[in-house]
Write a structure and sequence with these properties.
mainly alpha, 2 strands
Length: 544
């Protein structure tokens, strides 16, 4: 029996646009761009190579590296060292493409293979350059890809980059790689002091060079939560202008827009990100896909604008694309990466069902072949259990959910490394468990016990670090609590719970609609009208 595996919970760089969706047409660049022809911003990173062509390829790789377009950056660094086989920093750059700190991903085998091509030992690699700064960069890689557990190496690498940042205080690249290392030690889970420190470093570089994509990018990552996001609004708008030829740069702007509830901007950013990603994939012979990280965000933005028809079309195209992939026979001994995208499609389906409160029965009847992946199966049972109106259906899906949850917890805790993002995911499942218990109590006509369970879910969710993007818990717990309080006639408490949700997720459509109803029921017509006016502004905004 194959062991179950947790689906990739943070999907990056896999996205396409469904151009047939009305209102999503947009201008695109005339030609597919490759290598240094892309517009990706500007940096100054002198190296020891004597080859102008190799240096240009290196700079192209650096721009792509800063934008997390790792496969394309790898190709550019490889091109640089093919031009100049003795170019030490080209090997360094290629090795760096195998470390994805914010996503808590690292291919240490590939990175070590690149270093081995530069030299058999650290001493031999140091001897390939006479520049002390380049030797320091190479020395940092020996730590990052050295011996020991990943979290220990990440910590040691961060300390090395901090020392380098003190040694080279005016070097923008050194400063930014120090900032990135601060994200890396927390492995994809927000730690506010570290994130703010990283953001402050990136902000200084951005103000010194407003064309630096890495500075804008890391600044955004440091503050992409509802409290701090206003600090990087300028950087987000600048990033879209300076680097229009990379999907991830265009998508990153929406990290700020979603945190601020700027839905038109958020939708437009992901439409453009999908188009740019498609162009880049075309360069490598890839084809369009109607699922993925950018389309998931796009779907959520469309639903916040109450553009249900457009969101439904996007979801239908995603399912159609997945069915086409599944129809192609594959060797069972080979892993087809497209098969894992069932998790992405189920994620989109779950979000659509929650945001529309299960009103679309045809979509609700979908089934998925989830195989042994935990995430899509958990989401499937969560949605069906939460939205069911009869107790028997809730119990059926609740039991399936709890069985999967037990298996996943055992798998995570028994693994050689408990990744912080996986532990956070287990916390999410605890929140959802309480939500399903609330759904069961409600279906049984026991509203007060349902409220008690929702209170527990809300408490647990409040203790979790903020996760950027659409709410990590699909039905945000304060909103669920508010809905139950509203049903119980506890209008003052419901209004407070909706207000709390709007602090956590700015301008969220369902929370605004609920807030308006709660304020109306408690007799506060002015506040009710204010909420509805915000809804009208969101849903009547010009469409991209």
């Amino acid at each position: 029996m194959r062991s179950r595996r947790l689906s990739n919970l943070i999907i990056a760089g896999i996205a396409v646009v469904c151009t047939s969706i009305p209102g999503l047409a947009h201008e695109s660049r005339d030609d597919a761009l490759a290598g240094s022809a892309r517009v990706l911003g500007q940096i100054d990173f002198p190296t020891s190579t004597d080859s102008k062509a190799a240096q240009e390829a290196f700079i192209s790789g650096m721009l792509l590296l800063h934008l997390f377009e790792y496969p394309y950056a790898e190709a550019e660094f490889r091109r640089a060292r093919e031009i100049d086989p003795g170019f030490a920093m080209a090997y360094w750059g290629e090795a760096m493409t195998h470390n994805h700190p914010i996503w808590d991903e690292q291919n240490i085998g590939k990175a070590r293979a690149v270093l081995a091509e530069l030299g058999d030992t650290p001493e031999q690699r140091q001897a390939t350059t006479s520049s002390q700064k380049e030797r320091d960069y190479l020395g940092a890689l020996e730590i990052l890809y050295g011996d020991g557990a990943k979290d220990e190496r990440d910590q040691a690498y961060m300390r090395q980059m901090r020392a380098m940042s003190q040694r080279y205080p005016d070097d923008h690249e050194v400063q930014l790689f120090h900032a990135l290392s601060l994200f890396g030690v927390h492995a994809g889970v927000r730690d506010v002091p570290a994130y703010i420190e990283a953001a402050a470093i990136a902000q200084r570089v951005f103000y010194a060079n407003r064309q630096h994509p890495g500075a804008a990018h890391y600044f955004i990552h440091g503050v992409d939560d509802p409290v701090h996001a206003p600090l990087a609004l300028e950087a987000a708008r600048a990033l879209a202008q300076m680097a229009p030829d990379a999907g991830h740069s265009l998508h990153m702007t929406s990290h700020i827009f979603i945190a601020l509830g700027l839905w038109s901007d958020m939708v437009e950013a992901n439409v453009k990100a999908v188009a740019a990603s498609n162009r880049m994939a075309g360069e490598r012979g890839g084809s369009a896909r109607s699922w993925g990280h950018y389309n998931f965000w796009l779907l959520y933005g469309l639903l916040q604008q109450d553009r249900r028809d457009d969101a439904r079309k996007l979801l239908l195209d995603a399912r159609k694309g997945l069915q086409a992939v599944n129809a192609v026979p594959v060797d069972p001994l080979e892993l087809d990466p497209d098969r894992s995208h069932v998790g992405s499609v189920v994620q989109m389906w779950a979000r659509y069902m929650i945001e529309t409160r299960g009103a679309d029965k045809a979509i609700g009847d979908w089934n998925f072949e989830t195989g042994d992946a935990f995430d899509p199966a958990l989401n499937f049972h969560y949605v069906h259990g939460l939205l069911a109106s009869d107790a028997a259906t809730v119990i059926e899906h609740q039991r399936a959910f709890q069985s999967l949850k037990r298996d996943l917890r055992a798998a995570v805790l028994e693994s050689h490394r408990q990744a912080p993002s996986e532990l956070l995911y287990l916390d999410r499942l605890d929140v959802i468990d309480h939500q399903l218990q609330a759904a069961l109590a409600r279906a049984q006509g026991k509203l007060e016990p349902a409220i008690e369970q929702a209170v527990q879910a809300n408490r647990l969710e409040a203790e979790m670090p903020h996760s950027f993007g659409p709410p990590f818990v699909d039905f945000p717990s304060a909103e669920l609590l508010a809905q139950l309080l509203l049903e119980a006639g506890r209008f003052d408490e419901a209004a407070e719970a909706y207000a709390l949700q709007l602090e956590r997720t700015r301008a969220r459509l369902q929370a605004l609609l609920g807030q308006a109803e709660a304020e109306r029921r408690r007799g506060n017509t002015d506040r009710a009208e204010q909420a509805m006016e915000q809804v009208r502004t969101m849903t009547e905004a010009p469409k991209p």
